[in-house]
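Q: Can I see a sequence and its folded structure?
A: Here is a first one.
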Amino acid sequence: MRIYFYIIAMAFALLQFTSCQEEELDRNSIFTDEPTTEKNSFDQWLKKNYTDTYNIKLIYRLEDMETDFNYTLAPADFIMAQKLAKVVKYTWLEAYDEVAGLDFTCTYVPKIIHMVGSPAYEETGSVVLGQAEGGLKITLYMVNYFTLDAATLNSLYFETMHHEFVHILHQTKNYDTEFQRISEGNYVDNDWYLSDDEEAQAKGFVNAYASSQPDEDFAETIAIYVSIKPTEWKELLSKAGENGASLIVRKLNMARQYMSETWNINLDELRNVTQRRLSDVTDGTLDLSPVATLDETD
């Protein structure tokens, strides 16, 4: 599970917490016995574009069985949910389709995407922005804050989704354990939050959370590399300094090798495709007009 926290103070400070579990992967649909209810045009669009195509159930209503009762939550805005659903399909799912093929995407992506309109507020004053659970379900909070800004889209949604997908892949076919030796002795487990990102980068991690343990380091290395712009990646390496940058590059090269040899995915091609598609979103090329109106809501 990968969770984003924003500490409410003078500004929001992004943190992350992850705990992932292995899952049995099955290409067959897990949504064949759902009760029949009246569907609006968006529901029909989701069935065609998510369930029928990818075997994914996208939930945009607050359902008791899917909702964490530890938080007081607001439902996703009907129009915002439609926009984000289009963006996730185009920028995340179809990026893997383009690079690795539809069958690959259908087999390995999480089977449930749950959209929540609000952030989830902790008693400490922090805010949970997203969760990913065991490779099966991803919860995206703050859907009602959707905006056509690349950095915001990445921090709220796509870094979590890429991160969790990497976990699914390496839990299916593991990466070379030599990766763990690059920063052996420097992982800090649950104390990762005691350092900021720049301190972690100087030690050879892409961010503070990556310093928690090797699996999270591996997932974060790929997720951050694919999500951010090439100029931002160069800036990250610059901040890391010569020693930190050399370690990060070693890890990235091992990740490239793993994705290529294990999954026949060129990580740089995936990055280029993801960035191109994200640009189509932010520059207005992708049509985000709603497929259903508010008049069709329950």
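Q: Show me another, different protein.
A: A second, unrelated one:
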Amino acid sequence: MNRIKFILLIQQLYIIKVLLVLESYLNRGIDMKKISLLFAFLIVGVLAACSNDGGQSEQDQEVPELIEVDLRLPEGQLEAGAAVVLEAAVTQGNEVVEDANEVKFEIREEGGTESEMLEAEHKGKGVYSAEKQFDSEGTYKITAHVTARDMHNMPSKELIVGNPAEQEHHEHHDDSTSGSGEESHEHGHGHESTVTVDFQSGTELKVNEKTNLSVSIQEAGKPLTQAEIRFEIWKEGQEKHEFIEAAEAGEGVYEAERTFSESGTYQINVHVTKGSLHEHQMFTITVK
């Protein structure tokens, strides 16, 4: 017998008891006003019991767990022109979600204003996937838009195709050698650029210790504020590049934290973006 049936049985027994009491009072010739008053108290008791049961039933209803989305992207170096499989594994608690209403992948290249949406197909066991061929080198932001069971989740990750830093370096070299000084200034990569980046790493860098990376950026001698600053970090001799978003800590000052798990020499490419401005400068640090 479940809890609700048990409560209903108790209420029925309570009502029977009320009727028996009323019958005994009537047989004894007690005044009807007193009987009516007693009956009212007993009815209030029944209603209170029903009310308490309803409140407890609402409390007993469990709040559904949030859906979780594991966005899975290929690891390792990707070459331009390669077909890439994007996957989103959707779960709710310990249950895989196989009835998602909609799963899409949004793809936007760094610095771009337009994005592409890809419909995902359910491959089974809560995994939804789509395939995309990346023809150009660059850094792409991949966002999985998942709607399931009246909830929405949209995690994002970065996908690096080729070596975008090297590509930008070649474009910068081509612009500065073949283009005019005015053209180079417009792109923010020529010798006439008015942007200066002062990199500071604080104290001596040590392995497995949290490091504060800080840059002071000026444009035409004034602090550059409300810009998008990203640190592109990689260890010499390795192909894996990591991108870290920096937060504005003051006028023209941007900071981020990172812990280096290995000692050695690292390259840091500071990307500066604001409107049509896109500047980047390289720095070298040593972790002991």
